[in-house]
From TrEMBL:
InterPro entries: Clathrin_app_Ig-like_sf (IPR013041), Clathrin_b-adaptin_app_Ig-like (IPR013037), Coatomer/calthrin_app_sub_C (IPR009028), TBP_dom_sf (IPR012295). Signal peptide: none annotated. It comes from the Eukaryota. This is Uncharacterized protein. GO terms for cellular component: membrane coat. Gene3D superfamilies: 2.60.40.1150, TATA-Binding Protein. One of its GO terms (biological process) is vesicle-mediated transport.
Length: 266
């Protein structure tokens, strides 16, 4: 267990520099994979958005509340840990499972949490080269260890909006080439109005073209995820709302972006 969550030998004070799975300390890989599926399996359970959820096998002597926030151009985990045990807890370590966005936690600089006391901080969340073979998901699997020699397992259902990059500079001239190069498409129609106004408030959706086609307004947007995957949208107004065509190099992101758009119309 001493190797759990180790960041390059445990000597670095920088944001996590590894994306090993939380159960990589298990030498039996078949047992490891079965254990992970069992521990992180939640079936069709709906999780609250942006609130850390403890999994059934997680001990209850430590309570952890956490949510992902964007502040001053960076991601942070707003974190609070409560020690519900009669013993002082030390030697805290946290790790995220391999994820397609390359998210890694900063080091938990906690000296100790006495019994029935709380500790809180904004923990930096860094980015490393992502695991491109990992399924696209907004669910972040989290493990925390401490001096009790127990492992605490959680899932964070991340807001999709926080997984997109803010884009201040953009080569609009290249967007036509990008649109033509993206092989996978998906379309969906929505009823409603005011979509353009909603998108104007988002620094992650960049309007790159606007024109009238057969008396219908056509808008084109570009989005970039934290792992530099581009998605482009063509939005056409209809008599009842909008028709949206999305294009991406990886088709997994198409259903992902429509999940976000669904939320704008709900």
């Amino acid at each position: 267990m001493s190797d759990l969550l180790c960041f390059d030998g445990g000597s670095s004070n920088l944001i996590g520099t590894t994306s090993k799975n939380v159960l990589d300390f298990d030498d039996d890989s078949s047992k490891k994979n079965d254990s992970m599926k069992d521990i992180f399996s939640i079936g069709k359970q709906t999780l609250p958005i942006n609130r850390l959820t403890a999994l059934p096998k997680t001990p209850t002597d430590m309570k952890v509340d956490a949510s992902l926030i964007h502040e001053a151009g960076s991601l942070f985990l707003q974190l609070e840990i409560t020690n519900n045990s009669p013993l002082t807890m030390t030697n805290f370590q946290m790790q995220f499972n391999k994820n397609v966005f390359g998210l890694v936690p900063g080091q938990l600089n906690i000296d100790a949490i006495p019994p029935n006391k709380r500790w809180g901080a904004l923990l930096p969340v860094g980015l490393i080269p992502p695991e491109i073979t990992t399924p696209v998901s907004s669910r972040l699997e989290v493990a925390i260890a401490n001096s009790t020699q127990q492992i605490y397992f959680y899932i964070l259902e991340m807001p999709i909006s926080l997984l997109m990059k803010e884009q201040s500079q953009l080569d609009i001239a290249n967007c036509a080439n990008l649109w033509n190069s993206l092989p996978n498409t998906m379309s969906k129609e929505y009823k409603g109005s005011g979509l353009q106004l909603k998108l104007q408030k988002l620094s992650t959706f960049i309007l790159v073209a606007s024109k009238k086609v057969n008396d219908k307004e056509l808008l084109m947007y570009t989005i970039k995820f934290l792992n530099n995957i581009d998605v482009m949208l063509e939005i056409t107004s209809t008599s009842k709302g909008y028709k949206i065509l999305a294009k991406c190099i990886d088709k997994q992101y198409l259903s992902f972006i429509f999940k976000f758009l669904d939320g704008l119309f709900n």
